[in-house]
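Let us begin with a simple case.
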Amino acid sequence: MMFSKTQANKAVLTCRDLMVGYKNTPVLNNINLSFEAGQFTTLLGPNGAGKTTLLRTLSRHLESLSGTIHVDDRPLAELRQAELARIMAVVLTDKVTPPLFNVFQFVALGRYPHTDFLGRLTEKDREVVSHSLAAVHAENLSHREFASLSDGERQKVLVARALAQEPQILLLDEPTAHLDLKHRVEVMAILRNLCRSKGITVIASLHDVDIAAKVSDRVALVKDGAITDWGYPEEILTTETVAELYDFNSACFSHHLCSIELRGDGHRGKVFVVAGMGSGATIYRMLAKRGYAISTGVLQSNDLDCFVADSLGADCFQQQPSASMTEASLQQAYAGLAECDLVIDTGFNSDGPYQNNLNLLKKAVTDGKTVFSLRDDNRAWAIDGNNSNIIAVKNTSHLLDAMEAIQ
């Protein structure tokens, strides 16, 4: 049964003035959060910030130090264990190594809140187990020994066991830890689909800001003993908040790209990149990795190249989107060009709004700067009689070789 929109916006788990910690030692204070049906909420923060402590308190593995937790408007402390198990499932980072269980038998353990005193499985229970394995694309593993599984396979099976409980709420602590890229993407896609198709409320701690920005309906930022921010990732995950959360120095989170860019130190000199319409993004990253400082322009402020250049800390000469660049923008770019040792023509489309950027290339040639061009036909901007400092390159690897040859 698909999750109905009429079921959304219902708070299934709430925390009010909650304090969590160990042995009367607070880890997080003054937590006031509401988790709604069918939403994916991510807890983000550095190691030791208290994400796991909060999850263990919400799952009743730890007692709260003060405040309240309500599940469906009922105090968490008043729910019997079997009753809670029918509402909430938990996948923590504890190493699970059950002896002599195959995968189907292990996932069937999730049915314990629904079975009789002897734990006997009915036909319905077996159907739920099979459907749970299918939900995580693990039907082919059902007869495998659990102990023989890879980390990625094991994580999917742990999620399947949790689904077999048929919970309203699923709590996960670092569900993608130690997984390769394929399984990391697959597990996150499975969890997001559970929210959409079954209306399960997923609350997960993650370290991967990029993934959190793409899959979360809400994010909570955890640091310095508190929830420092809470809300939509599109609003909360800005360059400034992520840098403050993780104390970034040489990296920058791009709000527009939902990704982290690693900045170079510029020790190999400065390069001016004449780009536009996404033609410069990979070249900026290539230069930053190899220690070049970057200037670029003139770019429209909504261009992909502009977002990447800003994240890498480049001197980016830009203007508001318009049909053509202004003379003031071009003069600023000329000044930036004068400070650079080398120039790169990315082969940007010169027939549209960036046609005046050809003037930057002509200026570079006139000033005697070495220009590396990825353009198929340099006659679009070549200057008769003074083209000896234009070096045509076929691709980025050829560009790197050519740059190394003159360093």
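The second case is a distinct protein. As before, the sequence precedes its structure tokens.
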Amino acid sequence: METTKEIRKNMKGGNGEVVLEHVLKDEALGSKCRLYAKVTLAPGCSIGYHTHAGEAECFYFLSGEGLFDDNGTKRNVKPGDVTLTGNGRGHGIENAGSKDLVFMALILLD
């Protein structure tokens, strides 16, 4: 199966561009998954703070350094870290380092 690359500018009100490499798309995701992708944020880029309704999102960080906003509490993230934003909660992420921030994103539907 082939990945599909998508570039989103100012995603969720964030800065710069977000590169999404969709690992699975459409029917391959099934009825319980909305997104499974490798996400890349260049230095200075971000995904703006947003809330999840009827779904949860997990990030697994592969490389780089970021600042993760977990429902209003900010913390640093690095390779090997995992975040989980549950239904009704919010998050945002910014590249706080000098190299690309790369992570896997998985959105599961409730």
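The CA atoms of residues 61 and 80 lie 6 Å apart. The domain at 4-109 is CATH 2.60.120.10 (Jelly Rolls).
Keep these points in mind for the review questions at the end of the chapter.
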